[in-house]
Amino acid sequence: MIAQTRPAPPPESPSPGAVAISWADEVSIAVDEQGLLSTLGTALHDAHTPGRLHIILTNDEALKDLNVTYRGIDRPTDVLSFEMGDDIHHDEESSLGEVYISIDRARDQAAEASRPIDEEIAHLAVHGTLHVLGFEHDTDKGHAEMVQLEETYLAHWRAAVTHGAR
Question: Per residue, what are the HEC states of the chain?
Answer without folding.
Answer: CEECCCCCCCCCCCCCCEEEEEEECCCCCCCCHHHHHHHHHHHHHHCCCCCEEEEEEECHHHHHHHHHHHHCCCCCCCEEEEECCCCCCCCCCCEEEEEEEEHHHHHHHHHHHCCCHHHHHHHHHHHHHHHHCCCCCCCHHHHHHHHHHHHHHHHHHHHHHHHCCC
